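PROTEIN DESIGN WORKSHEET
SECTION A - STRUCTURE
LENGTH: 65
TOKENS:
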């Protein structure tokens, strides 16, 4: 099933640019890719220290100032 949505011409141009950059074949695929990236859990971005719950605080000796 398809649905038509109204967007400004500027938005269509931005969508086309993103489509080329992401390598997606349709506007729908582009939008879905963007939505998937936007809703990714923050835990994926914590890297090697994702298991650390408290904030990390440096000691004065570690600073180069």
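SECTION B - SEQUENCE
RESIDUE ASSIGNMENT:
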């Amino acid at each position: 099933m398809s649905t038509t949505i109204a967007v400004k011409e500027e938005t269509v141009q931005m969508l086309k640019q993103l489509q080329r950059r992401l390598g997606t074949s349709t506007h729908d695929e582009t939008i879905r890719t963007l939505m998937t990236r936007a809703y990714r859990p923050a835990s994926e971005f914590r890297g090697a220290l994702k298991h650390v719950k408290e904030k990390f605080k440096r000691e004065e000796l570690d600073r180069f100032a």
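SECTION C - NOTES
The two ends are 61 Å apart (CA to CA).
The chain has one domain: 9-62.
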